[in-house]
Amino acid sequence: MSIKSLYLHVPFCKTICGYCDFCHFLFNEEKANNWLIALENEIKDKNINKDLETIYIGGGTPTSLNIIQLEKLLAIMEPYSKNVNEYTIEVNPETIDEDKVKLLKKYNINRVSIGVQTSDNRLLKLMNRFHDFNTVIYCVNLFKKYDINNISVDVMYGIPTQTLDDLNKTLDDVLSLDIPHISIYCLTIEPDTLFDRLNYKEVDEDLDADMYDLINNKLISNGFFQYEISNYSKKGYESKHNLTYWNYNDFYGISLSSSGKENNVRYDNTKDFNKYLNGDYIENKVILSQDDLMFEHIMMGLRKKEGINIKDFNLRYKTSLIDKYKDVIKSLINDGLIEINNEYIRCSVKGMLISNDIIVKFMI
Ligand code: SF4
User: Which site from 12, 48, 232, 288 is most exposed, i.e. has the minimal number of CB atoms within 10 Å?
Assistant: First the structure.
């Protein structure tokens, strides 16, 4: 089956957030122009299908590019984007203006993911983020004005010094935006980030659990449903692109630091800017065994609320999921952590809270 999804990483940001360990470089016009040349070459080399269904331009901050560069990027992608049914771009509120929104509309972008994180200006400052919540409102209204209504926002919780009340206020503010998708992640302190150097600590387990409960209750009582551990949407607004990953289907990864999967091969692109400019795109290629594929399929599929379709799994690997993992499954069912229902195997509500621990048990 041909590959239906493509992820493209734009490695530039206007400023660097205190907690971030993604591949990013401070935006520099000349560097971004050179990157665009290399990107065009990588795409030519890759021989990408023109019948893609989803494209996701992430980063970094794709909209940190200036308008000429953004148009160049969208024009490079145009042969592949014409017929996709979900075309997403990540944006940061302070990098958006009306001309950029018009441009995104012109190139058929039909979904945006906005980095909001919190509506608390004190916490935004602590995170070294340069927008405020009024800019988020302006940005959402601009997208709606141009009929880009499939809007997702990223929210973070467990931010140093954040209280339950702070989080509650952010959720109220985000809900007031009247948007159909929310991704919500607990902050982790990654090595060598500013937060790590400042010795900030991750939120303790009890507050983490209280925050998770607050999020779940509040979003569900406001018409959202949780379709993945960290993702909530209104019906019909699930991220089709991200479901590619969680359904363990193949996808292209383009540009610095992206990864892709084609059949039983996974590759990681280089994070080295100069190597990338010289056409040395791929850093690492791994051939996945049948056991690797089955394990990774379980790892991704158990993130979804609906779980893994057992029949599809059995057909794909010509192996019975239930027989292959019978001891693990039996013990997890006995502990009330997973359940089998309507041909799906999924984490229970209790299991969702410790899904990483559950997944490890399938490493046999
Ligand atoms: S904008 Fe996003 S990618 Fe850039 S530094 Fe902040 S979190 Fe990282």
Answer: 288
